[in-house]
Amino acid sequence: MPNFSFRRAKDVRRFAAVLTAISLALGVSACGGNSSAGGDDKPVVLTTFTVLADVAKNVAGDKLRVESITKAGAEIHGYEPTPGDIRKAAQADLILDNGLNLEAWFAQFVEDLDVPHAVVSDGVDVMPIAEDSYQGKPNPHAWMSPKNVQIYADNMAKAFAKLDPSHAAEFEANAKAYNAQLQTVQDEMVSKLSVLSEKQRALVTCEGAFSYLARDAGLKEVYIWAVNAEQQATPQQITRAIEFVKDNQVPAVFCESTVSDAPMQQVVGATDAKFGGVLYVDSLSEADGPVPTYLDLMRHDAKVITTALTGGTP
Ligand SMILES: [Zn+2]
């Protein structure tokens, strides 16, 4: 995608200029984090997106202040950080990112900051992307397997212990307790989806973000585009999805909360499949929405998928 590369390079240059200006203004080139940012004495942990913030809060308990750079509902792959984000990051004590190329903007974001950061996906069993221009690259959506998120939680406990050694035992105990809840949700998800018959075992979504969930639950994953980017849902991609749905008589198809469902509605219009509902992957909802926590997100998606594929109404 030449267009994509061009815009990326331009963004990076513009972004670097903004970053330099702000670094100079704040005088952050030589100093570390600033625990007093935000009005209490707790160290500040910034995550790149809402799912990580929720997991981090479970591990941190009340000992750290955890915030997400991107807000609920944001598109996280191609996010463009604001000067406010950079200011906030310069004052944080620790930054957590997913890694696996999820946050295309992140390397540039932390490059000039003297703030430690940890990659929470370190050690997960990575699945490659099967097609498109991303073929062979890691699929970044590792958190769609609660078993992987157990590794995320352990990595966070280690990073928090370095940041605040006096509470290391508490972080470890919190991660252990949270990991038990993750196991329950993982088991519930697999058992819920196990009612699907062989014919119903196809998960057709907008983005190819469900590889890990599909692997865990024994579903065939089909998507319109591999990873959210500036060019997605080409006519060929939509045609391919339509053919798959027709050939396999797929009863329902889905789209994610952070992207437009218009391309999938085209698939619905051209086939006998119903629109099965909105799935959450790249972002939690607001606190009063359907998935304010990661555990809610996994339960919600398993329920929506099972209901729609077995012929129920969403
Ligand atoms: Zn995604």
Q: Can you characterise this structure?
A:
By secondary structure, this protein is of the alpha/beta class. It folds into two domains: 2-187, Rossmann fold, CATH 3.40.50.1980; 191-309, Nitrogenase molybdenum iron protein domain (Rossmann fold), CATH 3.40.50.1980. It contains ten helices and eight strands. The protein has helices at 2-26, 50-60, 83-90, 106-111, 146-163, 168-193, 211-217, 235-247, 262-270, 294-309, and strands at residues 44-47, 65-68, 94-97, 117-119, 202-207, 220-225, 252-256, 274-279. The protein has a four-stranded parallel beta sheet with strand order 2-1-3-4, with helices on one face. Strands 5-6 form a two-stranded parallel ribbon. α2 links the parallel β1 (44-47) and β2 (65-68). The protein is globular and about 60 Å long. Residues 77, 141, 207, 209, 228, 281-282 line the site of zinc ion. It is found in: Cell envelope. Its main location: other. Belongs to the bacterial solute-binding protein 9 family.
Structural class call reads: alpha/beta
Number of strands: 8
Q: Number of domains in the coordinates?
A: 2
Low-confidence stretches: 1-10, 20-37
> Hetero groups bound?
zinc ion
Mean pLDDT: 88
How many helices does DSSP assign? 10
Annotated CATH homologous superfamily of the largest domain: Nitrogenase molybdenum iron protein domain
Taken from the alpha-carbon principal axes, the silhouette is: globular
Task: Kindly report the spatial arrangement of strands forming the biggest sheet.
Answer: 2-1-3-4
Known CATH architecture of the largest domain: 3-Layer(aba) Sandwich
CA radius of gyration is 20 Å
**CATH top level assignment of the largest domain:** Alpha Beta
* Element string (H = helix, E = strand): HEHEHEHEHHEHEHEHEH
At CATH level 3, the topology of the largest domain is Rossmann fold
Question: What percentage of residues falls in helices of 4 or more residues?
Answer: 40-55%
End-to-end separation: 36 Å
Strand proportion, as a percent range, falls in: 5-15%
The largest sheet is: 4 strands, parallel
